[in-house]
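Worked example 3. Consider a protein that binds magnesium ion.
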Amino acid sequence: MLSFDEASRRLLARARLTDPAPVNLADALGRVLAEPRVVAAVDVPPFANSAMDGFALRSADAPGTLRVVGEVRAGTGSLPEVGPGEAVRIMTGAPLPPGADTVLPIEEAIDDDATVTVPAAPSGLHVRAAAHDTRAGDEICLAEALTPASIGVLASLGLGEVQVRRRPLVAILATGDELVGPGEPLEPGQIHDVNAVALAAAVVDAGGVALPLPRVRDQAGSIQQALTRAARDADLVVTSGGVSVGQHDYVRAVLEQYGSLDFWRIAVQPGKPLAVGELGGVTVIGLPGNPVSALVTFELFVRPLIRAMQGMSGDGRHHLRARATERMPKDPDRRAFLRVRAQDDGADLHAMPAGGQQSSQLRPMADGNALLVVPEGADAAEPDQHYEAILLQPLALAGR
Ligand code: AMP
Ligand code: MG
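Given these inputs, the predicted complex is written out as structure tokens:
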């Protein structure tokens, strides 16, 4: 069995960055810049402007009563000169007119239309200096997925389109004679295919594009054909089921015969039979069939890989420390990722089992919000001990 760390390292070593492609800023949410360093070509803001609706004037003239000689609105290009003893009505965002060095808010002025009476005002009051947000030549580093704020920064720099990494196309292939699509009736012995849709959702959640393939039966030939086609179309292939030691588990054998197998057993609970290899030049990750095992191993191994293919780091999750509320047994030979509900109790975080921990029990994973990481060597999470918790959903607050 390969350790968790070694398996992660070997898998991430396979990450190849996807090609850059142009995208309009309007479609850039969650995308990753192909070149994270952006050099500002312009000052932001490009000119000194007013932070308030009020009067632009010379600070030397305040306090006093000043003649109102004009108005400047946001968007105005031609500006009146503010001479001694004069003021100009100004709106938020309007350029500071020449001569003025300060802005007095309308609420603090006595406005008599032709004149305005103002209290003392220091120079620079309510004036936004040119380039106070960004100066031309500044280097801005946006290395992670673009957020509304970082998209806003790019827009403020005047960029309409940016080069981002293409989202990896991830083929999903569920294997198993017993599987029937959700929505279809079950014959005796059959179950609904959970993994095809759950893994496709996990691909999207990780920033990839899911390419669902028609489900295949436990037959080496069908699996080989499906994998060969998937490798032609996709950047990464993820299968579920058929990687264990059963008589009808063919995914590994197909990889060995038609491509190559890097490793296939990892010291992770749930998810021991994870197979990683290559076929047709594309990485194939064979996830175990149990839906919990498939989703947990996807989270731990496939999600970071999909992110790395776009230049993102890590898994994009919060890793916190949480106190186990009770004993939760595990396999001492493997690192366990228990499905828990992590809650903030005001002083500390605590983690309680979200339900049964068998890999065929999916509901606790949906009810929980975190994976509690219990290291190799331990035979349980012990009550009142603290462990790493990987937050998959928002933290719960006590009493909710
Ligand atoms: P396997 O990895 O093929 O040995 O499957 C392990 C367990 O997961 C078996 O009980 C399968 O019936 C179940 N299983 C496999 N694939 C799926 C799937 N796509 N959806 C739901 N359960 C599955
Ligand atoms: Mg099977």
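Take a moment to read the result before moving on. The mean pLDDT is 97. The chain is about 20% helix and 30% strand.
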